[in-house]
Amino acid sequence: MNFGDIFKKSFLEGFYSTDLQLPSILLSLMVTCLLACYIFLAYRLLTRKTFYNKSFGVSLAALAIITAAVILTIQSNIVISLGMVGALSIVRFRTAVKEPMDLVFLFWAISVGIICGANLYSLAVVSCLVVTVAIFLLDLVPVTKAPMLLVTNGTDIDGEAGILSVVEKYSRFCRVKSRTVAAGQLDLVIEVRVDEAAALVKEVGALKGMESVSLLSHDGETTY
């Protein structure tokens, strides 16, 4: 047996197995469960203004617990941890995450599982409180009113100036997004920010040659 064999043997004997007591495992999983429920409730409250997906909230709680179990397994045996890294590296997730806040909650759940699996319970609790306060405070920051889209269709192809003059009476901000002229028809899409929407639509609709007027709201980015 050469020096290299002795070194590898001593290394594996020192790190091959770390005994994890049942009370320590139960405490870690219990704290993780409590924080996972906390994340589930936080997700429910923070998504009250948007589409709420209960199955995603349940997945967040389960993800935190599973991550904690994985970290506990990695602590117990270095050989298993190396094999687990190789096994997890071949997993591919194809589900698209549409909401940016969903990504925040995913990383939050994973981080809580990692921290609790490492037995750093104080850090897990404090980080959850800090993240919650930060999200709620940033959610209270006022957002500029989102613009609307005024869609007009008329037979007067030279009536764009008249339409814009009416729009400028009701909106200090307006911008032509689309202009289409075909077969004697003029179609305009104008981005506006207006308070008196009904009056604007009524006055534009009364213009010469106007056939239809629509004012649409959209969920795109806010223009400052």
Question: Can you give keywords for this protein?
Answer:
alpha+beta; single chain; 8 helices; 224 residues; 14% strand
Number of strands: 4
Largest sheet, order of strands side by side? Answer: 2-3-1-4
| Overall pLDDT level | 79
What radius of gyration results from the CA coordinates?
29 Å
Main β-sheet description: 4 strands, antiparallel
The topology string of helices and strands comes to HHHHHHEHEEHE
| Fraction in beta strands | 5-15%
Low-confidence stretches: none
Helix coverage percent of residues?
55-70%
Structural description of this entry:
- The chain is an alpha+beta fold and 224 residues long.
- It has eight helices and four strands; from the N terminus they run H-H-H-H-H-H-E-H-E-E-H-E.
- The protein has helices at residues 3-15, 22-46, 54-76, 78-88, 100-117, 121-139, 160-170, 197-205; strands spanning 148-154, 174-182, 185-192, 210-217.
- A four-stranded antiparallel sheet has the order 2-3-1-4, with helices on one face.
- Helix 2 runs antiparallel to helix 5.
- The protein is elongated and about 85 Å long.
- The N and C termini lie far apart (73 Å).
